Amino acid sequence: MRVLSLLAVLALEASGTVALPSFATGLKRDALTSTFCGAPNQYEVLSGTPWIIFSMNYNYQSIEGSCCTGLYETSGSGDAQRIHWSSIWDIDATVNPDLVKGYSFIGLTQNLETQLNTISSIPSTYTWTVSNSTAYKGNVVYDFMTSDTKGDSTSSAAQELMLWIRYEGGQIPLGYDKGAVATIDGLYGKDGWKLYQGLNTDTGITVSSLLVPEGNQFGDDVGGTFEGDIKDWLLALSEQGVFEKTTYVNVGNAGMEPFWGTVTFDNTLGLRIDL
Ligand SMILES: *[C@@H]1O[C@H](CO)[C@@H](O)[C@H](O)[C@H]1NC(C)=O
């Protein structure tokens, strides 16, 4: 939800003021070799890939336990490029249970800050396997940011867009109390997606969350797979008047929002913007 600092981080990376870990090159890993446990942020730009791996625990003060993002390996190239990673939660359910603790994710670093109508596709595949020893609360989600201004992800004119493909434990989106503002059918093979909108009072940015129907989510208790063109979601939002097709896609990522529970998600993700 709070991707603002991501852009700030990427800007720092671009200007070379943050030293990259020396192991960021030559990625070919077959075991969990890197673990990132942000307090609040820990990340690595993965050279030779379009990605940054991120552990963003913006509410780390409310984490009794830990929440980490793990890297196994990246593989392939082009449309077949994948990242094998994990999101590892061991979060006490009694401390601020309804507060999202952060965001564990893989973010795009390439072909951002381009107008939606100049993007040919945003192909993605997202597979997750769940190992939990308790119940848990959280989601599996794509999170993008758009603005009519290139590069803007911080002003109140920027928009945050979430696509919830799975959610557990009673997580609800911003604006849920006002009810859905639209229903979208025929997206990623499912009807009845519900669009909610609400203001994130921390950032001043309106968040539009599109939720897969609760009873027809992707996957099950032990895991799932999603495959689709993320551009289809953005176009569906533009058809609802959320933004024009000329708006800029400034931030894009996929991950998990942790609230509480002891659970590990073992994930394989493909995500890229093709111009
Ligand atoms: C694991 O999570 C599922 C919900 O996805 C829940 O139904 C199940 O009871 C949990 N397992 C344990 C051991 O708590």
TrEMBL record:
Gene Ontology molecular function: cellulase activity
Keyword hit for Isomerase: no
Keyword Hydrolase: yes
Coiled coil, from the record: none
Keywords: Carbohydrate metabolism, Glycosidase, Hydrolase, Polysaccharide degradation, Signal
Pfam families to which the protein is assigned, alphabetical: Glyco_hydro_12
GO BP annotation list: polysaccharide catabolic process
InterPro entries assigned to the protein according to its UniProt record, in alphabetical order: ConA-like_dom_sf (IPR013320), GH11/12 (IPR013319), GH12 (IPR002594)
Domain of life: Eukaryota
Gene3D superfamilies: 2.60.120.180
Signal peptide as annotated in the record: 1-19
Entry's family note: Belongs to the glycosyl hydrolase 12 (cellulase H) family.
Protein name from the UniProt record: Uncharacterized protein
Organism, scientific name: Cylindrodendrum hubeiense
